[in-house]
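Here comes a specimen:
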Amino acid sequence: MPELPEVETIKRGLDKYLVGHTILDVDARLPRIFSGDSKKIVGGKIIEIRRFGKGLLIDLDNKYSIAVHVKMTGQLLYKEGKETEGTKGAVLRKVDIRSLPDIYTHVVFKLDNDATLFYRDMRQFGWVKIIETKDAQEMPFFKSLGPEPLKDLTLEKFKGIISKNKTAIKPLLMDQAKIAGIGNIYANDALYVAGIDPRRSSMSLSKSEQRKLFKAIEQVLKKGIEVGGASEWSYVDALGGAGQYQNFFQVYNKKGKPCKNCGTIIEKIILGGRGTFFCPTCQK
């Protein structure tokens, strides 16, 4: 599932290409993932893209917003009407936006200047909702989010969250109500960087370990943003391009490979229902 760096990369792409366009028409092809009155946004000009954890808000000048959660396989893809930067290299991209819409395209936003925004989702777990901008942050999904790294999660807030929970540290990092934006990839890598066993009780971390983990979370998320996220599965940026963080995995998805620090073979267990990778020597 796309995590904070991936959704931030999508946001930045939409900031660049989508802001300023006016919505001319909406074709919701799969009603169960689309809710709200599409007529409310027709004629609206896109003025801002906001991200909250793994969710996005596309704000319009008519006081309506498009709320989007891409979940596991959702994609927001921008296509221009003429051959520009957005289309010239499309054949080399993970998704050829010139071929859209296709069978996995479930919502089509027709824009001015012959441009288009597609919502594409192979597994159909994501959602698109039309809502008044004033009510957007009160949606249950957005309202339930905890503080976010690189934004409003301070070290002191992080320490308070860690010290009050008995659960294993890795599932805690992925609990969006506690900390927004961290998913399986970056939780694995942050714990490896900090040298902390993912099975440890959160409350067992010393103050020094709390600081190390806080810094490690910021480190791996910043790297993920820098390289455009991880395209391990279906994630792509707003133009269909792949991210590169999969080339920088610290421990995630490295079962059976030697630890780059000590040479011990990386192990994989299931923790909190998710694949968990760690070095039994380096992570204590």
The chain has two domains: 4-143, 155-278. The longest strand covers residues 46-52.
